[in-house]
Input
Amino acid sequence: MKSDRHLVPLKPAMGPNGACPHCASTEVTATGSWFPGIHVLGRYTCRSCGSSFVRDLPVSHALAHPVTATPQGQVLDPQQVPEWIRDAFQRGIRDLKADEVRIERRVFREHRRVVVLNTLDFLYGHVLLKLYNALHYIDRHPDLGLVVVLPRMYAWLIPDGVAEAWIVDLGLGRLQGWYPAIDRFVQERLAGYDEAYLAPAYSHPDVAGMDIARFTGVKAFDPDRFNTEPLHVTFVTREDRLWFRNPVTRFLHRACNRLGLRALSGPLVVGDQDRLVKATMRKVRRHDPSATFSVVGLGDARIRMNGVDDLRTRSMNVEVEKAWCTAYGRSQCVVGVHGSNMLLPTAHAGACIEILPRQRFENIVQDITVRYEGRAVLFHYRFVGDHATPTEVALHIRSLREHRPVFMRNNHELVF
Output
């Protein structure tokens, strides 16, 4: 098979993965893989100095920040790895979880040659971004069966074309741990294949033009109908990623949290967030009286206005997920605070306005799914400050609607 930079060999033989951390020799032998959860590592022995070590295979965040450690868990390159990765790695390798882990194997089609896509992570968006990688292997490697490893809460997103799914019965929080039970399952399965590769599971794949319906079964908003469809806007709200009216409100809420008074401040700031959302709706309707809205998120449905579907709930299931995706798919625009699980909303909606707190500038664009290419990205994805007013947000919604025809007329793609 033609080599592919998007494949990491596992079987029948693992490929090279750097020099010995002790003597810098390249005379290193791979003795096997280790698959305890989020991390996928190789086990190595140096033929020159005789030392043994483990090292992250080039997968997901380890593509940029691979960790090398002794088998006992001492990180050997601590200065080369960000603290948040190094500390989590050391906790995991030194505190292996003895829990048995239920893993369901769903086989859709048998293959002797496979590529394994590990999407396991403890953050919702990280899992979804890794899962987006699946379409590359389904479409570009029909000769290989794609095996997707994912938490159970994502099983409804398995796309057609996957050969197998290994569905792990662990909540996201528990996936911070390292589980020998997961490794045992994987090694038993790998033994049954003639050839196996590991997918790098890029943490931020370029998915412009991706058909999100292949995952959710819900069609994305058709950009060609941006100005012909009645305006619909969806607000994505969370009670732990709040839209604050001003710096004082934010400071008081955080002070109350530190003093153990969250029960006092929480309802007040959540209620104020609803007032900001309702004020934005009213301002949008001053220029487009027929505009309709949806509100989604974990919380109580409290907004009762004509033309508003408040779909918030505290009990998630597949039906709720699909209802939310349907709301996104009929929306010219979605509005939400950075970190409000904006990946699926932006994968379906025609455009986005994200409220971006200043402490999250480093993470800009990481939590949205970019559907467009070129200058269209700059037009359709807009970022406002963490204390943006309803007037400012409404003006952006109005601009998206009113200025898009001129933008599309004046901007054309050329191939140079």
Observations:
- The domain at 213-410 is CATH 3.40.50 (Rossmann fold).
- Residues 262-287 form the longest helix (26 residues).
- The two ends are 33 Å apart (CA to CA).
- Residues 272 and 282 are 15 Å apart (CA to CA).
